[in-house]
Amino acid sequence: MHISTKQNFYQNITSSILIFILLLIIIPTASAGVSYLDTLGIIVIEDEPGINLTQISAAISDDAIINETSPGIWFIDGAIYSDDSTVFLNNTDASEIRLTGNRDQTRIIYGWDASDVFMIHDVHITGWNCSSNTPETRGGLRLHNSEFHDVTLYNTTAIQIFGNPIGDISDITTNYTRNVWFDGVSDTIVRDVIVNNGIPSVGSSGITFENCDNITGYNLTINRVYTAANGIFGENVTNSEFYNLDINNIRDSADPTTGTLGLSFTEGGHNYFHDIQINNTGWSGFGLSGNENFDRVENVTIRHHGHNGVDLHPASNLLMSNIHIYDHVIGNDVLITGGTYGNPTGGARNVTLDHIYSTGGGIVAAINVSGLTITNSNIVDAGVGLGDTINTTLINVTVTNTTVLDDLNKNTISIYNLFGLPNVNTKIIDSSCYRLNSQGAVIDPVWLNVDYDINLYYNNNLSLYYYSDIIVQNNLRTPISNAEVIFDNDEEVSSVNAHTDNVASFYTNGMGRVPLPDSERTGSAAICGYHVDVDGTKHNLDHTATITTPDNQIITLPNITPDSTWYRADPNTPTYTITAIIPDSSTGPHITGFAPSENNPFNMADSKKFQVWTDEDLTTMEWYVDNELVSTGALEYTWVVPDEDGHTIQFEGSNANGAVSQNWAINGGSGSVMPHINAFLPAGSSLAPNVGDSTSFSVTTDQELTSMTWTQDGTEIASGTMETMVNWDTAGSYNIGFAGSNDNGSVSQAWTVTVTEAEEAAPGAPGAPGATPQDAGDASVITITPSTLTVVPGETFTADVSIDPEVPMTGAQFDLIFGSSSMNVNGIVEGSLFSQTGTTMFSAGTIDNDAVGIIISNKIKIKMEEVIF
């Protein structure tokens, strides 16, 4: 295409103008706004929108003041001051800048307000002594709204950063500098900052954040601070996150010095600290003070601290978890305190410590502390001290002493008063120690499931509780759900739940069991073993359990006496189970309860009280161990497990109305027991089906079995399964048996089956010859659709259960068995069988995909209650 000369000229002019404008924007220019104040030793850059060192040098035109001594290396005899200017100190023309600073050696690069901007990156900055031509500390940096990254600094005083930096503050390394200080900075990322051999002023820190909000700080490293200062310090910092912090050698833990903390934040809140390593601090490792509020701290390791590992002095609404503390010199591993009684609202409030591992220093909470919770923590060669605290809870805290047992500070959980103020409402749960200590003005402490090696020291005004495991079954040993269990005692000491809250009534779950703590802590039961009055009088408690079923059958089990043998190392593994049995209406005495369970642990040298309860007084009562009579005349017998061999315990009792017996098959060693059948179907041991019927047999046990065999009249009909189906083709009597075993022992179950011919229906009756369609039919037909279906793991599918009734119906109930190891039931929805003709009452039953319910092999039985309209 031909273009005229005029057209080309226009295009060239346009391009030239665009290039020229871009050059004006990108390339800083020299200006008369550059001057040197000799009396102050300052190069002043005034009203310059963009200028670099080359242009500053050209403007000054004095090599004694500013000079590029070699390519990229600049010497400046003085400081650079930006006044309403933007100064470029970066790799466009510099790799290293050496400055002697102003005359009083306080600044080398600085501005005073938001319009005094520096663009500093990819450069080394060093304080310099021009006489000796060597590095020397000559002043600091003061930056407002500036760019600052990829910079190495040597021999400076404070590096102060204000306002809203341009981009991240990142990849900064300082050597022999005072500190890096952020003031009034918000919405900024600070990352990859290393402070080596810091020399901050006394009371300052290697890195300081003051009046900052929404800071993300990570990969921050402090390698040695020589003065009495902190590693990283924050004051009035909010809504920020700090992680991957590595803080080392803040003075020396061997020479404890006040005020030298590894990390300290105060008067701020809503901050998140995590993944922090602190090593060798002259005072505390990690400190929160000034009522620092709503912080979260996770994954912190502290080593070699001169005073407290963690110092909360005070802090409120705080969660700290996974804190490991080692090698203390003096003080505590964790101190929580309000600091003074003169400020009743300023103490530590609502602090939760979880997974604390402490060696040598322990945990102390004292002076105006309330709402403290410590969970899942291990204290080695130290203790836990709670002085004057209010509403303190310890759960799963273990105190272990590996050194001097007589040192009370190394082996005790202790609650006490200081300065005459009481300790109120302390709860210690699922914990263990060498010595328990409750002394002085302590108001109603409650200790639940606590293990200790020696008697309580100063054990006044204390209630010691143990978990109670109750299972309720009917006479066929089928679990009864929603049964009410109430405990009473003469001292009127209330039962509690697993939070130690007073609870009067407990209810069984689908397995007929009062819930264990892991499944429902609020519904789990505990009863008092003994109570110690303020005057030191000890009361051992004797409880009676009253069990009421949903259909108002009632039994009572008296003489329940919890003691230290009830302690559970694992709160969710019962050590003493009471099985309550609702008897039938048959004549004669019935066992209404027994304890312990074969499923409880039986370790060598354990002491176990075997006990039975009956609904009638017995005239003869005999106890046998391995078929040898060992005791008579009582409903209880205490047995000490002699070895790790298997044993049998048997109770035989009788009166004029009949006899009762209870057997325990026990396999000693490591608390293991012989396998036990939890449930079986059909529930009765005698069956009477008709010819042509089929019966599904199944068994569930408390342990996995390695051998499983089904027999009919002694002939094997199935193996390797916990269930089988038998079709009845011929009338007669049959014996169906199940036998299973594992390394702990064996179990068996038997059914007697009498099969009869179905009676022929009378003429005109349903199913009889000549009957009308309204009254004819062999039976209603129940089908499941689809009968077969292939699905992939995780896929949801629907199965329809249909009933084709041959006679009028007012309700329906059925059992559904399915393999819970391969599928879960998500929900049950009512169909149209009854709702199409009227109002219905529909119950979807109970679904328990985790084997809570009636279980058949690895299958769940879902019981559908009767439907009525």
Task: Outline the secondary-structure elements.
Layout: H1 5-26, E1 34-37, E2 42-46, E3 51-52, H2 53-60, E4 66-70, E5 73-76, E6 79-83, E7 86-90, E8 96-99, E9 107-111, E10 117-129, E11 134-135, E12 140-144, E13 147-154, E14 159-162, E15 169-175, E16 180-183, E17 186-198, E18 205-210, E19 213-225, E20 230-235, E21 241-250, E22 263-266, E23 272-281, E24 286-293, E25 296-305, E26 310-328, E27 334-337, E28 348-359, E29 363-366, E30 369-380, E31 384-387, E32 390-400, E33 412-416, E34 423-433, E35 435-438, E36 442-443, E37 446-452, E38 462-467, E39 469-474, E40 484-489, E41 505-507, E42 526-532, E43 538-540, E44 543-548, E45 554-560, E46 577-582, E47 591-595, E48 607-614, E49 620-625, E50 628-632, E51 636-640, E52 646-655, E53 658-667, E54 677-681, E55 686-687, E56 694-701, E57 707-712, E58 715-719, E59 723-727, E60 732-742, E61 745-755, E62 781-785, E63 800-804, E64 815-819, E65 854-856, E66 859-863
Can you put this structure into words, describing what you see?
The structure is a single chain. This protein has 869 residues and is mainly beta. 3% of the residues lie in helices and 50% in strands. The protein has 2 helices and 66 strands. The strands form 8 sheets. The protein has a 40-stranded mixed sheet that branches. Mean pLDDT is 84; it is low at 1-31, 761-777 and 851-869.
Summarize the structure.
This protein is mostly beta strands and 869 residues long. It is built from two helices and 66 strands. The strands form eight sheets. It has a 40-stranded mixed β-sheet that branches. A five-stranded mixed β-sheet has the order 39-46-47-48-51, with no helix packed on it. Strands 55-61-60-57-58 form a five-stranded mixed β-sheet, with no helix packed on it.
